[in-house]
Amino acid sequence: MDFVDYYKILGIEKTATAKDIKAAYRKLARKYHPDLNPNNKDATKSFQQINEANEVLSDPEKRKKYDEYGKDWQHADQFENAKQYQEQSSNQRGARYTGAQSEGDFSDFFESMFGGSAGNRRGRQAKYRGEDYNAELHLNLIDAFKTQKQTLNVNGHNIRITIPAGIENGQTIKVTGHGGEGVNGGPNGDLYIKFTIANHPKIKRLGNNLYTTVDLDLYTAVLGGELIIDTLSGKVKLKVKPETQNGSKIKLKGKGFPVYKQDDAFGDLYVTYNVVIPTNLTDKQKELFTEISKL
After folding, report:
1. Helix (H) or strand (E) holding 191
2. What fold, for 127-198?
3. Where are any strands of DSSP class E within 120-188?
4. Per-residue pLDDT tens digits for 216-256
5. Which end is more exposed in the chain, N or C (fewer Cβ atoms within 10 Å of the end residue's Cβ)?
6. Which tens digit of pLDDT belongs to each residue from 100-137?
7. Interior CA angle at 54 toward 71 and 192, to 5°?
8. Which CATH superfamily is domain 203-294 in?
9. Taking the complete model, does pTM exceed 0.70, yes or no?
10. Is 282 exposed, middle or buried (0-12, 13-18, 19+ CB in 10 A)?
11. Which of 86, 80, 90 is nearest to 128 (CA)?
């Protein structure tokens, strides 16, 4: 795996404080956010790298491992455990071995962990599973409404994933085998993707149901008529009953959000009417309303 310089990605020094890291991340995240750079693959790649760098450097424990082990930081725990095991084994050998010999044994073992030359390796090498990766993917409500495919760049590798319709805000899915590389032939880790779904300006989602409020002119509310509204699946024509009251609700069955991984299953759409009182009336209109009020 190629070394990724997280400090360089965020444009900070290795002596940067937690406050410096947070400020640099916020500045770059705003600049390269996918919502501000639609159809810009380079910006999307940069945004993913920025998130990855922030995830590591903003965590004191991960940052310590990264500073010490570089590209192998995700295997730091395995290396430390192996080191302790080797030291314990050396101590148990007693006086039969000199300090130099014990140091040589560990050196060979440590080199085998990091991929040293075959001539310095002894015995069978331990296999270790790769580190799991965590990523965050931002979608809008319309994106989450339909099944789609996206390509993610994780440490220089393009990963093609299918996002099922109905994915929830905050939901995490696992992509098996696309985490960190295993050590000495061990299995790769997994990639965990957390989804953040932005709010829609006019439609609210609660579970699989959708909620929206539409304006209704006074005349249609009183006399009845037809109204065309926008939904996530397209335009829908509504029949408005006469004497419809402000704040009244109707349910459009099956016009809600798709149910995750269930074909042809949808929630419902609830529409609330907001009756709009006319303004800037002419004298004639005011006269007519006055006459009506006397009836």
Report:
1. strand 191-197
2. HSP40/DNAj peptide-binding domain (2.60.260)
3. 133-139, 148-154, 157-163, 172-175
4. 999 999 999 999 999 999 999 999 999 999 999 999 999 99
5. C
6. 444 444 444 444 444 444 444 444 567 888 888 988 89
7. 75
8. Urease metallochaperone UreE, N-terminal domain (2.60.260.20)
9. no
10. exposed
11. 80
